[in-house]
Specification:
By secondary structure, the protein is an alpha+beta fold. The protein has one domain: Cytochrome p450, CATH 1.10.630.10. It is 49% helix and 10% strand. The protein has 18 helices and twelve strands. Strands 1-2-8-5-3 form a five-stranded mixed β-sheet. The chain has a three-stranded antiparallel β-sheet with strand order 4-12-9. It has a two-stranded antiparallel ribbon with strand order 6-7. A hairpin with a 2-residue loop joins strand 10 and strand 11. The longest helix has 32 residues. The protein is globular. The chain starts with 12 loop residues before the first helix and ends with a strand. Keywords: Heme, Iron, Metal-binding, Monooxygenase, Oxidoreductase.
Length: 451
């Protein structure tokens, strides 16, 4: 698809593909050393065929700022997620339908809605941490998943403490966890492994959990449709009452798939980010001391909005998203016309991926990129194509504002009210968790007690 002279990574395609699935960090760092700005790859297994991958901010700006003009962002290229999310969410649909759905969903994650969510985020975080006993070891990633899942259920979807809600949360966690290991991810990347060979087979277990989850989700949707309450402001109620430009309501399947996408994406990624902050803050005592001093300076009556505006807290969260990004790539873009990009010419139909992971590791942007140094974000302002944890353009994460707000408030709440320490001196490394990166050990910690 291209007449550009773009290098390919070294090695056999099959070996590169296995390395990409089982050890993506090593794969990406190796390709960075060989091909720092661009490389062409045909082994990622997303179904794109050959793709052009770039980490250069100039290239990213050109690609991501020309959606629906020079480039298209078709949802069908995200089909690797379809077995879990379905085909009808804002992640999977394209064109005008995607634009219209995004406009329906986005208001729940911005502006005044964040003020409503703030106190709930703090309360749920404190409640989860309060269940720990002094001296008790725990995995921070498990705690933060519990916190984030409860937030996405109660704050965004308005679900209560009913038995059905608890069952949905349990099954959702089990389904996502079942694809959490690098080896389990092989089933996502190799559709030939998606065989239901009975309840004890790996894919068979997922199929049955997903079936139970679907049954519960549709029951919740149908009950809410039958008892629609116009005073409710959660996203499910908003989607139920929403109408397209032609006056049509979303179907049950569209509601289901949208909820699945927002439930999975809305808690998994944020839970990982919170766990990484806890790791880096406790890994570097000077960072923790400065952050605690800033938090304590607010006083006990600080509002969530005041907490979220603290500059060093913001810098710590930004540096975490840079140093330990959860997402590795932006969503794919397809050239709709001949493209000249940084002196290279590409044919229509060329597929491009921005590499968030490699952009955040660029020496020319972030000197000594493996160091965790929040001061970077106090010393200069990075462009949306230099610091890009949530993607950009028409496919930028619809819940980015809520995710950042939740990240700051959850971290601040835990550090203001409780004491923790790392349970191990062993460095925490990133490994594949589905299509994202997460701490390999889950960040083992010890709960010390209240502050």
């Amino acid at each position: 698809m291209t007449n550009a002279t773009i290098p390919k990574p070294k090695g056999l395609t099959a070996i590169r593909r296995l390395e990409w699935i089982l050890d993506p960090v090593t794969y990406l760092e190796r390709t960075k050393a060989d091909t720092p700005d661009f490389f062409e790859e045909d082994s990622l297994g997303f179904g794109y065929g050959s793709v052009i991958i770039t980490s250069h901010p100039e290239a990213l700006q050109f690609i991501l700022s020309r959606d629906r003009k020079t480039f298209d962002a078709p949802g069908e290229l995200n089909s690797i997620l379809a077995p879990i999310l379905g085909d009808n969410s804002v992640i999977m649909i394209s064109g005008d339908r995607h634009k219209e759905r995004r406009q329906l969903v986005a208001p729940a994650f911005h502006g005044e809605r964040l003020d409503v969510y703030g106190e709930m985020i703090c309360e749920l975080t404190r409640a989860a941490a309060a269940t720990l006993k002094p001296g008790e070891p725990f995995a921070a990633r498990n705690l933060t998943q519990q916190v984030s899942l409860q937030i996405i259920f109660k704050v965004v979807f308005g679900l209560d403490e009913s038995l059905r809600s608890q069952q949905i949360m349990s099954l959702l966690t089990q389904t996502v966890d079942s694809l959490g290991s690098p080896f389990a991810a092989l089933m996502l990347f190799f559709s030939s492994l998606q065989k239901d060979l009975g309840p004890w087979s790996p894919w068979g277990k997922i199929v049955r959990m997903r079936s139970q989850l679907d049954e519960l989700m549709y029951a919740e949707i149908r009950e809410r449709l039958a008892t629609a309450d116009p005073t409710r402001t959660d996203i499910l109620s908003m989607l139920i009452s929403a109408r397209t430009e032609s006056g049509e309501a979303l179907s049950e399947q569209e509601l289901h798939d949208e909820l699945m996408a927002l439930l999975v994406a809305g808690h998994e990624t944020t839970a990982t980010a919170i766990a990484w902050v806890m790791y880096w803050v406790h890994k570097q005592p000077e960072v923790k001391a400065r952050l605690l001093a800033e938090l304590d300076g607010l006083g006990p009556e600080a509002t969530p909005t005041e907490i979220s505006q603290l500059p060093y807290l913001g810098a710590v969260c930004q540096e975490t998203l840079r140093r330990s990004p959860v997402a590795m790539f932006t969503f794919p873009r397809v050239a709709q016309e001949p493209v000249t990009l940084m002196g290279q010419s590409f044919q229509p139909g060329s597929v491009f991926l921005g590499c968030i992971f490699l952009t955040h590791q660029r020496e020319d942007l972030y000197p000594n990129p493996h160091d965790f140094r929040p001061e970077r974000f106090l010393e200069r302002k990075f462009s949306p194509y230099e610091f890009i944890p949530f993607g950009n353009g028409s496919r930028r994460c619809v819940g980015a504002a809520l995710a950042q707000y939740e990240l700051k408030l959850a971290v601040a709440t835990m550090l203001r009210h409780y004491q923790f320490r790392l349970a191990s001196d062993r460095p925490e490394m990133a490994k594949r968790r589905g299509v994202t990166l997460a701490p390999a050990q889950g960040v083992p910690m010890i709960f010390v007690g209240e502050r």
